[in-house]
Structure formats: structure tokens, C-alpha cells
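> forwarded from #structure-qc
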């Protein structure tokens, strides 16, 4: 089962964390059935630097640190 595009997930999670960035490349692998993804990505301002993030899918949104309380 394919998930959402990796670049979209990371951009959405960065925006939710207040750190928007232009993701130029990304690869994510699903870690569980609950929408937990391990991602490696690069930003446009530092394309040679590989960054890593744990992205969580909460309903239809994506977050870096966990789902917000409703």
C-alpha cells in the first residue's frame, strides 16, 4: 500500500512545526500501521545535506513531534 508522496508529507509536517521549507528530495518508509514514517530528506537551501525526521500522520495532517490534542 503506497502512502502519500514523501515530499508532501515532510513539507506539511515542517509547516505544522512552524519551520516551512522547500523539500527537493525525500524518501519515507512506513514504520507501523498507524501512520508513522521514517523519512530522509533534503531542503532547497542545503540540497547536499541529508536530514532525517519521524513523521506522524494524524487524521489527514502530518506532524514531526506527535499528534496535537483535540
Amino acid at each position: 500500500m503506497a502512502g502519500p508522496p514523501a515530499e508532501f508529507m515532510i513539507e506539511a509536517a515542517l509547516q505544522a512545526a512552524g519551520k516551512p521549507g522547500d523539500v527537493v528530495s525525500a524518501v519515507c518508509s512506513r514504520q507501523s500501521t498507524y501512520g508513522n514514517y521514517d523519512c530522509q530528506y533534503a531542503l532547497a537551501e542545503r540540497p547536499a545535506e541529508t536530514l532525517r525526521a519521524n513523521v506522524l500522520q494524524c487524521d489527514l495532517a502530518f506532524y514531526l513531534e506527535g499528534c496535537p490534542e483535540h
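QC bot note: The CA atoms of residues 14 and 20 lie 5 Å apart. The chain has a mean pLDDT of 89.
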